[in-house]
Amino acid sequence: MLHSASLNGIPGEAGLPLLGKSLDLLRNPTQVSDDMVRKYGMVYWTNAFGRTSVTLLGPEANEFVLMDRQRNFSSKGGWDPILGRLFPNGLMLRDFDDHRAHRRIMQVAFKQPAMAAYVEKLNEGIRQGLERWEAEGDFRFYQAIKQLTLNTAASVFLGMPLGPEADRLNRAFYDSVQASVAVIRAPIPGTKMWRGVQGRKWIERYFREQIPLRRGTDATDMFTLLCNAVDEDGNSYTDDDVVDHMDFLMMAAHDTLTSSITTLVYHLCRNPEWQEAARRECAALALPADDLPYERLGDLQVVEWCFKEALRINPPVPSIPRCAVREFEFGGYRIPAGMTVNVSPGYTHRMPSIWSNPDRFEPDRFSDQRAEDRVHRFAWVPFGGGAHMCIGLHFAYMQAKVFMYQLLRNYRFHLDDGYQAEFQVMPIPKPKDGLPIHLRPLKEAA
Length: 446
Prior knowledge:
The protein is of the alpha+beta class. The protein has a single domain (4-445), classed as CATH 1.10.630.10. It has 16 helices and 13 strands. A six-stranded mixed β-sheet has the order 1-2-3-9-6-4, sandwiched between helices. Strands 5-13-10 form a three-stranded antiparallel β-sheet. A two-stranded antiparallel sheet has the order 7-8. Helix 6 (112-136) runs antiparallel to helix 7, helix 9 packs across helix 11 (239-270) and helix 11 (239-270) crosses helix 13 (301-313).
């Protein structure tokens, strides 16, 4: 841990002995950032989760760090202390030429033919999941959508339904994500970090056993594509690479999307006029079949605004860390090499200088008429930016649109009168009570 004396006059505070601001950040990271900005401004240092870090806030800071035109920052160095034991060597934990080489190989799994094939599987899996929800009617949405996104991820990514191992896989991912913000960072038996490391070991065994069955085959699921992917120079993945990338992609695909869709459904319940506007848009497509085809994804403009607004309100990655590989200057301060540097989509997405009524759900702020997200190119950054821009962002849009199309054209959904959710923000936003909702078929709700 760097001592505050090395921070060249940057303002800030350490927080509690040993713990720093860890507990405060787990309880209410929004309050922590607001308090620190009020005291110290948009550049400050603090201690949390065993590290001293400097936080740079605002869209200019997002652009400076994420675009990284001077190659000042290591993504691996930023994420490794958080995720290194849990999701080692995922794409986000690679830098510069190594990152570029791995990303080029991975692109084959996100090209148009692959994406079109994924849509067919998403429609089928989501439709079947909603039919099971209909039989329940009243349930906790977060747990239900988490299971559904894991099932659809298995179909799209693995090319097969999950069997008895579904609950174990879900638990392994849950334990790994929770361990990312464990206050005790060593895998001592019984701790969050220990459970996360055990989850990683189980996931690794699960994927490694499958690889020999996928090599040399022509299936179109993402796992098989990665096993056989070759870039234009003939480079391919080792077994270790495939395991690391699949582990990370599966986590990102179902945990972050679970969070974002939960936020979206919550706000569509609280703002029924937007639920109805999105439903009318889905009905207006007048498709001959029940499924949303790949070529019509772009027609759901209102649904896209609503999804973007959910990502603004609760970005699934509220803070993005980097490690400075050399000394650099920002905001009038010199930040030393070796320092952890954070930028915050969560803070930027609430800035009243960018967003009118930032605490309100107003999807039309993304319309051409308002265009608040275009005030600065890094004002809205739920998918990061620069070389490490989320490779699965189009997949996220696609899955969200297919889900909302299937949901809106067949069901209405609402909350108990007066209900207001309380969201846990870290490590990934989710409602603390699971979000109890009521789902009714349209014909019955009418």
